[in-house]
Amino acid sequence: MNRSKQLPDNSDSRNSSAGQTDGKPHRILLAEDNDVNRVLAQNILEFLGFAVHAVENGDLALTVALQQTFDLILMDCQMPFVDGFEATRRIRNEETSAGLTKTAIVALSGHPISEGRRDCLAAGMDDYLQKPFTIEELRDMITKWLPSPGM
Questions:
Q1: pLDDT per position as a tens digit, 100-125
Q2: DSSP letters along 37-50, please?
Q3: What per-residue confidence (pLDDT) applies to 149?
Q4: What is the pLDDT of residue 111?
Q5: pTM of the predicted structure, to 2 decimals
Q6: Which architecture characterizes domain 27-145 according to CATH?
Q7: Where in the chain are the domains?
Q8: What is the DSSP string of the chain?
């Protein structure tokens, strides 16, 4: 694993600024298998000022997450090859094995929150955003989990 440390385990670091810290855009990994949802979410995130790396399945999400540094991962739960739950478990195992602090992972799911939240948290995800979501809901969730300036 060759990425650097990110968000502290307390995950209490918040940033109220839009998409940037110290003039650099926050980096977000977006894992979404639905082409329309992925393009739409990527466009919204880029409009909000974030640097986005989008992938279409959990296997690619896992590979990219372990090779690059991100401030936040937005992970669809139901994807081909490796689903979001398994990708998250593997990312968490690698972070623990390498002694890295956690990168916040927010689940993206079409399942009602009452059904999906427990499974997402059990897999190691930090939070849950139900699809479809508004731009404001997405922005608020991202702001909740972004590292503070200077981290």
A1: 889 999 999 987 776 778 889 999 99
A2: HHHHHHHHHHHTT-
A3: 52
A4: 78
A5: 0.83
A6: 3-Layer(aba) Sandwich (3.40)
A7: 27-145
A8: --PPP-S-TT------SSSEETTEEPEEEEE-S-HHHHHHHHHHHHHTT-EEEEESSHHHHHHHHHHS--SEEEEESS-SSS-HHHHHHHHHHHHHHHTPPPPEEEEEESS-HHHHHHHHHHHT-SEEEESS--HHHHHHHHHHHSPPTT-
